[in-house]
């Protein structure tokens, strides 16, 4: 690993993953914790990244969610998260840790407009993470939303937006034979990154 820029190294690994992973090369585990520090984790999809993501100096990694979901509530209560990419075909992992903040309305609106119409309607119909009596109940809600927006663009719901993880630590892990793995960690130091190799 020769790069001293974690975003450049991420881009190189991500490009290889997009070429080799069969499904969802942009899938990442998102770990959050509530106000009491109790953790939870789920898979989400990376929808933007880079040193200038969302126009923020230092950039980050962007995902989207229902703000009223369990993870939305945890992000509001404790805005510190961890991400994990695991690309089994490449035998690689990337771990990212840092604070999270909401993306701008402009960024959220642009991404929402790019989604499939059915996904846009689903964002209105779903009360994500809340109890659901039956699948039929959700299908009725979806049909009602579909009729409501018939013949017009679907606006972004006020309870749906994106978050950007501002990385303070990024670790790259490459599998090697006999568990003699290779690990590099990048830690933010002001506007720069400190780089250190770790024992496997």
Walkthrough of the structure:
The protein has helices spanning 6-20, 70-77, 105-114, 117-125, 135-148, and strands spanning 27-33, 39-45, 48-50, 60-66, 80-87, 92-102, 160-165, 169-174, 182-189, 192-198. With 200 residues, the protein is an alpha+beta fold. The chain has a single domain, classed as Electron Transport, Fmn-binding Protein, Chain A (Pnp Oxidase, Chain A, Roll), CATH 2.30.110.10. Strands 1, 2, 3, 4, 5, 6, 7, 8, 9 and 10 form a 10-stranded antiparallel sheet that branches. Helix 4 (117-125) crosses helix 5. It is elongated and about 55 Å long. The mean pLDDT is 94.
Q: Which terms would index this structure?
A:
10-stranded antiparallel beta sheet; 200 residues; Pnp Oxidase, Chain A; alpha+beta; elongated
How would you summarize what this structure contains?
With 200 residues, the chain is an alpha+beta fold.
What would the average pLDDT be, to the nearest integer?
Answer: 94
Distance between the termini: 15 Å
CATH architecture: Roll
The gross shape turns out to be elongated
From the helix content, strand content and strand pairing, which structural class follows?
alpha+beta
| Number of helical segments with 4 or more residues | 5
Please give the CATH class. Mainly Beta
